[in-house]
Every structure is written in structure tokens, then in C-alpha cells.
Amino acid sequence: MENIIELKNVTKRFEDDGSAAVKDFNLSVKRGEFVTFLGPSGCGKTTTLRMIAGFDTPTSGSILLDGRDITALPPNKRPINTVFQRYALFPHLNIYDNIAFGLKLKKIKEDEIRKKVTEVLEIVDLAGFEKRSTSTLSGGQQQRVAIARAIVNEPEVLLLDEPLGALDLKLRQVMQRELMRIKKEVNITFIYVTHDQGEALTMSDRIVVMNKGIIQQTGDPVSIYDEPQNAFVADFIGESNIIDGIMVRDRLVKIQGVDVPCVDTGFAENEAVDVVIRPEDLDIVEEGAGFIDGLVTEVIYEGAYYDIRVMAGDYEWHIQSNMSATPGKKAGLAILPDNIQIMHKPRSSDEEIIEKD
């Protein structure tokens, strides 16, 4: 697939103090792709989206659409539409007129408008609701109207800035599936902003994990979850045990003073590293049967698994297991070598990406 959007060395600095909201951002988005910008509040994801939309201008760098530089192009000249968390529907207009508003501004003929609006109402599953007032709609229905109003203009790129943030959990899950369905039907390029890891993993073709204005990792959901490239990604995507270790040699790491086999290579001997282990990859075993023993401090039944905490030395391990344990008793922890992720320690302030807040 060809690239539709390219961001090249894009930096955005605040005018008041010169600090960077986005630093040297490089990304190519393929036509028809669903790309999600994921990260904590203040990481630069919405600022990046606004620069693509044309609402903000980069301090340096360039933004290309189909190979054409649009960095200085105003929003109304870009074939790009944006759906915000606050849908900004016109309360005095019914659903039909809300959706048709942009087409009427373009002075498109009424019969063509009617045809386009009817088509998108079918796509967002609101056929027959044309005359309804937007004030009578649920949050999910309002969100569908906002999406319909955006896609009726047939943009090449649809930007979505946390559009599900105001919805309750069950409705949010329903709308995630709806967005995926709509994306397949209209074949528009989606660029989506969220801080919700589950949302990103569920919906995306590709995820761009951001922190402090810097891309931490880009990849498909499986690689982002299973092969995080640094401790921030491992900590932010899902849950992880992140503990200091020493890479004794290739395929052997020292964790809390214990040599544990792993599969990683290419580190210096005795290099200080971050060791990342997912809670679901740890097994509770009999005392002495694992790589380390500890005291079970907490067991919570979560339905699909038991959420268990085990204190070993000065670190409390987090385990998710289908086997329970007894609080106050000793237990061992076991791990397969290929379930251990070894990462280099940060070498600079830009790589110091674990949140200290």
C-alpha cells in the first residue's frame, strides 16, 4: 500500500517557554490503514493530530499528503475531517441537517446531498432517524452522527481525537466494534488518538506509542504487547513486572541475585538491564520449585484468573493465574525463558521514559 500521510522530522514547541510538545516525529501512514496514537495525557498525541488536521503548525519539519507538502495548508483546504470527544453537533438541527451541513456549504445539489446522507445513515446504523433531534440521542448515537457528518464529505483521512472517552464501558466496547465495521465499509484512512490501551489493541492495524513528545515504539498490536522495546511501553501496554537485572552473559540474567535462563543475546557481560515479565507469564509453584520464593500477600479472584501478589525480597511480584494461592504462605515463582524480556537501561534524559509522577 502507498503512503497517504507522511510526517518528517516534525517538532512543535510551545511559544511561551520553548519546550517541545512533539520532538522530531517521523511517521508514514498507509492508505486505508487504522493507526492509533497511544500514550498518557500530555504525551503529544493530540498535538500531532492537530498538526495533521491543520489546526496547529509545526515549529519545524513537514507534513505530506499523497506526497504533497500540506504543512502550511489551512484545515479547510485539506481532504481531512476530524471527530472530537465533544461531538459539537448543532442542537437546533435534526440528524439529517447535521450530517448535510458541510455538503450544503459546498453548494452540492439537494438530490445528491440526500443520496449521500442516506448512504452514511445506513453505514452508521441510523437509517430512519433523519428527523430526530440530536438532543434526544444517546451518547453512542451522537457519536455516530458526528462520524457520519465527517465521512459524508468523503475525506481521504479521518482523524478521531478520543471520540469514545465520554461513553461508559459497555457502550465504548460496542462503539469500538462499530468503528472497525465503518472503517472496513468506507475504506478511509483512520488516525485515532486514545490513552486507553485496550482500545488501541482492539481496533488498530498499527499503534504508535508516545511519551513526552517522542515515539517510543511503532508496531502492530501483537508486537507492541509481546515485544515491547523499552520499559515505558511494557509498563503502559497492559501490566508488567519491571525489575532491575544484570545480564550475566548471553541467555542468562541475574534477577534478585538469582541466575535465570532467558533467550536474549547481544548485551554486554554484567550489563545492568531492565527485566520485564508479564503477570500472566508467571506460574505459582511449590516453595523451592521456581527461580525465587516469596510470601503471598494478596489473592483476588477476578473471574477469568486470580490476581496474586508475592513479596520476594524488596519487590512485590504481580501474577495472574488460573491457580489460586494462600495469603500468608510461602510460594515459588516459575517462568519460561522465552517469556522474559530484557531491555537496555535508558542512556539519556530523552530515553528516561518511565513516568515519575
Low-confidence stretches: 353-357
Q: Looking at this structure, what is the CATH superfamily of the largest domain?
A: P-loop containing nucleotide triphosphate hydrolases
Structural class: alpha+beta
Number of separate domains: 2
Distance between the termini: 41 Å
Describe this structure in words.
- The chain has 2 domains: about 5-225, Rossmann fold (3-Layer(aba) Sandwich), CATH 3.40.50; about 240-345, Beta Barrel (OB fold (Dihydrolipoamide Acetyltransferase, E2P)).
- It is an alpha+beta fold and about 350 residues long.
- It contains 8 helices and 20 strands.
- The protein has a 6-stranded mixed sheet, sandwiched between helices. A 5-stranded antiparallel sheet has the order 13-12-11-14-20. Strands 15-19-16-17-18 form a 5-stranded antiparallel sheet, with no helix packed on it.
- It is elongated and about 80 Å long.
- Helix 2 (about 95-105) packs across helix 3 (about 110-125).
Provide the fold topology.
Layout: E1 3-13, E2 20-30, E3 34-38, H1 45-53, E4 60-65, E5 68-69, E6 80-84, H2 95-105, H3 110-123, H4 139-151, E7 157-161, H5 169-186, E8 189-194, H6 197-203, E9 206-211, E10 214-219, H7 221-226, H8 231-236, E11 241-249, E12 252-255, E13 258-261, E14 271-277, E15 283-285, E16 292-301, E17 306-312, E18 315-321, E19 330-334, E20 341-344
Parallel strand pairs: 3-8, 3-9, 6-7, 7-8
Antiparallel strand pairs: 1-2, 1-4, 4-5, 9-10, 11-12, 11-14, 12-13, 14-20, 15-19, 16-17, 16-19, 17-18
Helix pairs in contact: 2-3, 2-4, 3-4
